[in-house]
Amino acid sequence: MLEPMDKKELTALVLLDVSKAFDSINHHRLLHKLANVDASPATVQWFKSYFQSTRINSALSDPLPSTHRVPQGATLSPLLFCIYLNDLLSVSRDSSLESYVDDSKVLLSFPLHQIDAAIANLKQDLHRVASWCCENHLLINPGKTKYMMIGTRQMMNKLPTDTSVSFLGKSLKPVDSAKDLGVTLDRHLNYDKHVSLLVSSCLNKLCQINCAKNSFDTKTYRKSFHPWSSAKWFIVLWCGRIRLPPM
To answer: Into how many domains does the chain fold?
Structure first.
């Protein structure tokens, strides 16, 4: 997105929200996709058993009548979901489509004078993505899907008033900021809002720690904020007399 900005182009970004992504994976389609990526027949059969049975110690349950879902939190689940989405990336024609596990986004860069054609192409690609998801038993939630126009301030000031995009019966209007993979992006790719939210979150955690500091001994007190690595340096500044263990 930075490269188009350097070329004085705009980028339309659509952050797709897939509802209950891991619970919606169809086992039959996933096994077929595993075979398509050259998984051996024995591997495909192993995954078929993995989806239908549960092992506790040495005991194996009877086959379960399950047709969908990979266990969320299991080590293999993100990899299986990536394999399931592998052919989605080739669906769009004019846009580029990127995915990281269940976070997917559609991007289309264009010069300002081609905005009408670009929005029309974006609508068509979003329709193709929605059709693919329907065929593969995945449900996109248009109410939580975010749409942004990204560019320099000068380019954004020249945008037409209405750049909304219709998607699954809902009109998506450009938002000023949205979160992608834990990072809050704004329409100028300025990270001020992300930093502000992160600082606010750290200060909130510090207030909680400070309120509870007299309720624990030093060892327990250290453990209480050890997982909050993002707050580490704020804690050092605020409570400089306490030496933190290495993180």
So the answer is: 3
